[in-house]
Amino acid sequence: MTPLLRKLLGLNWVLLLTMLALAIFGVVAIYSATYMREDSVATEFWRKQANWVAVGFLAFMVTSLIDYRWVRWGALPMYLAGIVFLVLTKFIGSKVYGARSWLHIGPINFQPAQLAVVAGIMVLSLFLSHNQFRDLHPMLRLLLCGVIVGAPCLLIMLQPDLGETIIWGPVLLALLFVGGIPLRYLLCIVLIVAAFIPIAINLGLKPYQQERITAFINPEIDKQGAAWAINQSLIAIGSGGWSGKGFKAPNTQIEMGFLPATAVHNDYIFSAIGEQWGFVGGMFLISAFGLLLLTCLFVAFFAGDQFGLLLVIGITSLIFTHIFQNIGMTISLLPITGVPLPLISYSGSFVLMIMFGLGIVNSVWIHRREIVER
User: Fold this and answer.
1) What percentage of the chain exceeds 70 in pLDDT?
2) How confident is the model at residue 223 (pLDDT cuts 50, 70, 90)?
3) Which of 129, 174, 248, 370 gives 307 a disulfide partner, CB atoms 3.0 to 4.6 angstroms apart?
């Protein structure tokens, strides 16, 4: 049996099939949420998403078959590229929903913040797993990790993109915990951040971001303004009932335009799914995400070395945080932050980044025995 065939047969098929099922359902959900719109750009969303899924699947397969230890040489260049793209975005990026967060390079349109967080996971995993750095005092390791995370976070905040900045918090905590930082240090970090949240809200956020926080705390305060979107999201999900109104159902919040037409296919895709597929559809979707995350944790448990373990934990926490934040904001558990739902929302390059990350997870699974045998 050739090494390539051995690797193909050794793929984590649960991970692969769950990822593909979610991605295909995402294309269907985007089509159902935009088919009724008359503008040609909107009707192309599902086709563009399908193209990104195809490219992402290719990236997943290639990354899966390459030994994940190549990340040791690719992490830093990818991290530096993310920083450069974030700087360029500040000056020549496109503004979307008040944040200059998108960058156009020829026909490609992407968010450098998403590249930066995946590259940051790779660099942090490399740093925390290195024997020389593991012997350093925890405070010094925390300081160095803070420098690694601080640069992209600052640039993302300057856009300003609150959602992608928040994503770094749980991802960093998960990596630090698995990387061996004592729990007492992590608790101190959480308490310090919690204490600074009111200051950050009042002094560090733009007026429209403060309005989102206010609308989250009291959705009744401005039903026609800042709280419009969240109230319509709740109405849409609630009106779906047990089994939903059906695929491409007429007279929905989506068709009548009550859900923001510019965001129903990305930020509010779960609202559209809740209305059309109901409680049953929402639970199936969340269950599929749960299976994907549990499979990733299963891979982490059998990782051949600390580096592979950290990579898988970082990518798993990244996906979980996006899921929790996106669904949480559509059901009013969290403020509106504009974070896409992995593999489901129309998000272009983000689908590619998630599938690339899952390819690394699969590579850790495929090559776990090679590490142990050595």
Assistant:
1) 86
2) low
3) 129
State how many domains the chain has. 1
Q: In this predicted model, what pLDDT tens digit does every residue of 105-135 receive, in sequence order? A: 766 777 888 888 999 999 999 988 887 777 7
Left, alpha or beta for 246 (phi > 0: left; psi -120 to 50: alpha)?
left
Domain range holding 284?
3-373
SS (H, E, C) the chain: CCHHHHHHHCCCHHHHHHHHHHHHHHHHHHHHHHCCCCCHHHHCHHHHHHHHHHHHHHHHHHHHHCCHHHHHHHHHHHHHHHHHHHHHHHHHCEEECCEEEEEEECCEEECHHHHHHHHHHHHHHHHHHCHHHHCCCHHHHHHHHHHHHHHHHHHHHCCCCHHHHHHHHHHHHHHHHHCCCCHHHHHHHHHHHHHHHHHHHHHHCCHHHHHHHHHHHCCCCCCCCCCHHHHHHHHHHHHCCCCCCCCCCCCCCCCCCCCCCCCCCCCCHHHHHHHHHHHHHHHHHHHHHHHHHHHHHHHHHCCCCHHHHHHHHHHHHHHHHHHHHHHHHHCCCCCCCCCCCCCCCCCCHHHHHHHHHHHHHHHHHHCHHHHHHC
pLDDT band at residue 61 under the 50/70/90 scheme: very high
Say whether pLDDT at 104 is over 60. yes
pTM metric for this prediction: 0.91
